[in-house]
Design goal:
Layout (H helix, E strand, L loop, with lengths): L10 H15 L5 H13 L3 H16 L8 H17 L4 H14 L2 H14 L4 H14 L2 H14 L3 H17 L3 H14 L4 H13 L3 H14 L4 H24 L1
Length: about 260
């Protein structure tokens, strides 16, 4: 791809950068979202924002399923970020990527130094709150992670950002096996986004894990109504059917 060479951090470039970041925040393993974000960054005709966008894309792609980062991806991300900082050294939404890269490397002191500096400039910035989440995830500090998810939701520039942060908080609660708290968050999110197949599925999985088969089945049916071929929901449907049959057999045995 040919990348913009205009050295100014223009408003057009900033708008394209924000669009690309939104697409990356929706990334769930589908590489089409990565290429879509790259095209958005390219369209801004601003070298610092375009280079920062590539850096963030590489950072997202470098994250492994266990939350760690591939070092080669971090190194490439830093190379592109340095190109952005060389021509636009004072843009918070660009510089926060540096803290995220340091956190991915495990360079905690460097990451904290950058974040503290940026906090002085704009402590209620949405992108900065995301940087704090990335940092505290590497630290494994659950209470700080929860705090910054809530801070990000409050600092969000629009409703989709706020809902995304709330849903991610629900995911974190789920990962921590705090199922009641996760369920409350997902129910709140589904109220504003009731066509979201993944949210409905997450709710049904919680009911499944809580052995509430009737609710799990009811919610899973809603998931399948929205997308009949959604593989995780199809799999859960079969699992519920098997467990209910086993329950009937056990009931007859002991009856």
């Amino acid at each position: 791809m040919e990348w913009p060479q205009l050295p100014e951090a223009t408003e057009q470039g900033r708008q394209a950068y924000m669009v690309g970041l939104e697409r990356l925040d929706e990334y769930d393993g589908d590489v089409k979202l990565l290429s879509s974000a790259l095209r958005a960054f390219q369209s801004g005709n601003s070298k610092p924002y375009a280079c920062a966008g590539v850096a963030y894309t590489l950072l997202v792609a470098a994250q492994e399923s266990d939350g760690s980062y591939a070092p080669a991806g971090l190194a490439e991300s830093m190379k592109w970020l340095e190109q952005a900082q060389e021509v636009a050294p004072d843009i918070l939404e660009i510089n926060v990527i540096e803290a995220m890269i340091y956190a991915g490397y495990g360079r905690d002191e460097d990451a904290r130094l950058v974040l503290d500096y940026l906090q002085e400039a704009d402590p209620y910035n949405y992108q900065l709150s995301k940087g704090e989440i990335a940092y505290w995830k590497q630290q494994g500090d659950a209470e700080q992670i929860i705090h910054w998810f809530n801070a990000a939701a409050k600092a969000a520039d629009n409703v989709p950002q706020r809902l995304r942060m709330r849903a991610r908080l629900g995911d974190f609660y789920f990962e921590q096996h705090r199922l009641d708290e996760a369920l409350a968050i997902y129910k709140e999110a589904i109220h504003f986004d009731n066509q979201n197949v993944r949210l409905w599925h997450k709710i049904s999985v919680i009911y499944w894990q809580q052995d509430n088969l009737d609710e799990a089945e009811k919610v899973n049916q809603q998931t399948l109504r929205l997308q009949a071929d959604f593989a995780p929901a199809v799999k859960l449907h079969e699992a519920i059917k098997v467990r209910k049959q086993e329950g009937h057999r056990t009931g007859r045995l002991f009856g």
